[in-house]
């Protein structure tokens, strides 16, 4: 039998599907010029890979989802963009771009949809800003960047130079996720460059004189930048559509601020190199008839309004929110120059270390006069609720007025858990005297406290140790609820324990001739029905004292409810003992049992003003 000859390379590797060009190369296997043969193979491989890519692209384009009309696909991209803009955290908002990588068709549609490339947001790097700016064509632009030491200012200049297309410009600082580290970023600048300061002056200088589409302009820094300011001639032609303007924490030149009669929100904070005269400031504000929110921080004039003959106060007919931060005298002077609606919410933050223990009540008096010209049927004279708190080492007072007309919406109603206080006042961290108590003393002169129904103490009960507390509040006829959250109640219990009306002895079964009838015995807080305690620490002695003090209240003035939430060292047995010890009381307890070892010295410190209680 004849032996079968050995197969050639072509016979082994080639098939019926092998193309002629490939078969010819296979048949040349073993030719003498190996380098030349390898070059031909490499070239042929590239040709085939190119063909494969084309075929795969055609294959990917066959599903119906990849053949959506451009106008439909563009709307889907835009919907996805705004959904992520609204619902995702800032560093994930740009992830919508990944959806354009599905196929060439999707990418081509996205690149041709100019509306997708009009927003420069979060921490967009310079290369991306330069890339997408041409894609936006001539559509309006929005710039909402978190700026830091790594911001590409030159790329930002290129965007802001399209001033006539700008619709929104918000340049704010990147805040370190751990504030304690942001204060020390300069010690390790390489690792914290993204949280370092940035100069925006050059970027603002790139803007043209007119911004006809601009509705929002916000430029702010983390800390005050004395070397940053608005450029000379900034938007000097104007921004006729501007509604929101915020300039904060850098040196402001009043004459360079682009005020517009269309403004609805104005927030200015920082020192002035050229501070305006009080009359000039008032005339500028008089030209803002649509203003709804006004914030002025550390920039109020010192000149007394009463010393300006012939100057009328500015009346803000649409103002809903007023926030002022400055020294006591400066705030008082400014309040004398304006009039606001009764529906306004006011937030005042006093700064500086001025001595407040002086008989100057002009600031409180001018608060009372702010809405004197408003014809709304609301006296806005009686205080319904007062909250005393300590936040960020600042004393806060929150006032809510009674008699709110039913025609006003829910924001003005009197549920402290749901609405913003009508008047909020905070005081310097470190100041001489007790400015909060001085302010409170003046407040009771100009406002009616007799309708006060609720008192709240949050993280601060020092007022309960001051004679002002007993003199001002203990005899008020309508206080029904007093709550303490995370603060020492010893001063309050001391006042209750030393109430003369509660220490007159047991009521006799038959009144003796000439004795005072029981109905005339009026204890402190005569209308008190509810005491709320939260984040308090209990022990046996404290429970015994609470039972003893509350049992001393005369009939007709007994406490109805004791609310206890999130407290320490209190369990079912303790609650049962209180209920048994105070007949008729109802205890609303959250059933949370938290045991904690209490340091004796901490307990002594907490009771430092208990006067032996």
UniProtKB/TrEMBL annotation:
Residues 66-121 form the F-box domain. It comes from Ephemerocybe angulata. It comes from the Eukaryota. Pfam families: F-box-like (PF12937). This is F-box domain-containing protein.
């Amino acid at each position: 039998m004849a032996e079968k000859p050995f197969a050639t390379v072509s016979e082994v590797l080639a098939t019926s599907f092998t193309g002629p060009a490939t078969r010819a190369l296979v048949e040349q296997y073993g030719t003498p010029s190996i380098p030349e043969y390898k070059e031909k193979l490499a070239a042929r491989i590239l040709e085939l890979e190119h063909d494969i890519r084309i075929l795969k692209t055609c294959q990917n384009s066959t599903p119906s989802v990849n053949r959506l009309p451009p106008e439909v696909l563009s709307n889907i991209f835009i919907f996805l963009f705004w959904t992520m803009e609204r619902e995702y955290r800032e560093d994930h908002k740009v992830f919508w771009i990944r959806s354009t990588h599905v196929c060439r068709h999707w990418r081509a549609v996205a690149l041709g949809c100019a509306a997708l490339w009009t927003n420069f947001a979060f921490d967009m790097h310079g290369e991306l800003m330069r890339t997408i700016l041409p894609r936006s064509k001539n559509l309006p632009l929005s710039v909402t960047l978190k700026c830091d030491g790594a911001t590409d200012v030159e790329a930002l200049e290129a965007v802001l130079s399209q001033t006539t297309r700008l619709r929104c410009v918000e340049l704010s600082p990147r805040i370190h996720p751990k504030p304690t580290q942001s204060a020390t970023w300069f010690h390790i600048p390489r690792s914290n460059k993204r949280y370092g300061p940035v100069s925006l002056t050059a970027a603002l200088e790139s803007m043209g004189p007119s911004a006809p589409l601009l509705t929002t302009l916000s430029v702010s820094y983390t800390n005050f930048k004395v070397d940053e300011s608005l450029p000379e001639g900034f938007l000097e032609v104007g921004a006729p559509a501007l509604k929101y303007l915020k300039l904060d924490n850098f040196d402001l030149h009043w004459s360079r601020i682009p005020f517009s009669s269309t403004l609805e929100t104005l927030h200015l904070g920082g020192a002035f190199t050229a501070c305006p005269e009080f009359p000039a400031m008032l005339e500028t504000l008089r030209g803002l008839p649509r203003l709804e929110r006004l914030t002025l921080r550390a920039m109020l004039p010192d000149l007394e309004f009463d010393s300006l003959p012939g100057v009328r106060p500015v009346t803000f007919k649409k103002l809903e929110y007023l926030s002022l931060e400055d020294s006591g005298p400066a705030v008082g002077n400014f309040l004398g120059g304006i009039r606001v609606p009764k529906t306004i919410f006011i937030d005042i933050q006093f700064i500086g270390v001025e001595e407040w223990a002086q008989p100057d009540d002009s600031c409180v008096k001018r608060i009372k006069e702010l809405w004197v010209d408003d014809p709304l049927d609301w006296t806005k004279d009686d205080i319904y609720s007062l909250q005393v708190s300590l936040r960020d080492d600042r004393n806060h007072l929150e006032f809510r007025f009674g008699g709110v007309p039913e025609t006003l919406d829910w924001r003005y109603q009197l549920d402290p858990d749901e609405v913003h206080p009508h008047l909020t006042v905070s005081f310097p961290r470190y100041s001489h005297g007790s400015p909060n108590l001085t302010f409170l003393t003046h407040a009771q002169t100009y406002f009616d406290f007799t309708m006060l129904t609720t008192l709240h103490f949050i993280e601060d009960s020092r007022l309960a140790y001051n004679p002002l507390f007993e003199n001002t509040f203990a005899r008020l006829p309508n206080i029904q609820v007093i709550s303490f959250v995370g603060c020492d109640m010893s001063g309050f219990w001391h006042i209750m324990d030393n109430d003369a009306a509660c220490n007159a002895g047991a009521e006799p079964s038959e009144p003796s001739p000439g004795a005072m009838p029981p109905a005339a015995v009026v204890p402190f807080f005569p209308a008190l029905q509810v005491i709320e305690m939260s984040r308090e620490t209990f022990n046996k002695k404290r429970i015994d004292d609470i039972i003893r003090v509350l049992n001393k209240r005369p009939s007709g003035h007994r406490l109805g409810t004791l609310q206890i939430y999130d407290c320490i060292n209190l369990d079912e047995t303790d609650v049962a003992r209180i209920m048994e010890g105070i007949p008729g009381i109802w205890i609303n307890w959250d059933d949370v049992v938290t045991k904690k070892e209490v340091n004796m010295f901490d307990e002594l410190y907490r009771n430092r003003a208990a006067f032996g209680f």
